[in-house]
Amino acid sequence: MRILQKIGIYFLMLVFAAVVAGIYGMLHDQISYTFSEEYFTQFKFKQFGIPWAYENPRLGAAYVGALATWWMGIIVFIFLGLFGFMLHSPRQMVLSLSKSFLVVIGVTLLTGFAGLALGYYQVNEETVSQYMQWVRPGVTNPIQFVRVGFMHNASYLGGLTGLLSGIAYLVVSKLRYNKSSQQDSLTRASA
What we know:
It comes from Marinobacterium iners DSM 11526. This is Signal peptide-containing protein. The protein is mainly α. Helix content is about 80%, strand content about 0%.
């Protein structure tokens, strides 16, 4: 019975992960839109084929963010969720997977901001010419465009490092649970 509950939890949380990742992408792209509107108006709206976004670019950026990340939530959770099966109970699985997904989001966010910081460090008036192959035609502020490109690329790397961090969190949770259970058994045996 416990395994059936865990399977149900796995699939429910898989859907939840896709929704959370989509919301994360919406917020991420609102931040990056603030740094470079042209990253969206000259690149992402065309890439995603959404001409209506030019009429409401903030909404368009949110839409792009959701489309670009919901599937990452599924990919991350497919692997993360499998590690959840090693946890003792369905309740522990829900709690630990929820916390591990927060770890993934935190690491992804920090990695994205690190990418943006690196973009600010690397890209300026003197160095932007090295990155012009990234810049789309019609861009009037290539420096900010490239900096936001750094942020977006780093965020995908952050998804991978976040996944590894989330798995590490689950393994540590399992080891702590095992240690706590052994100590409880020893305490009961000596009483």
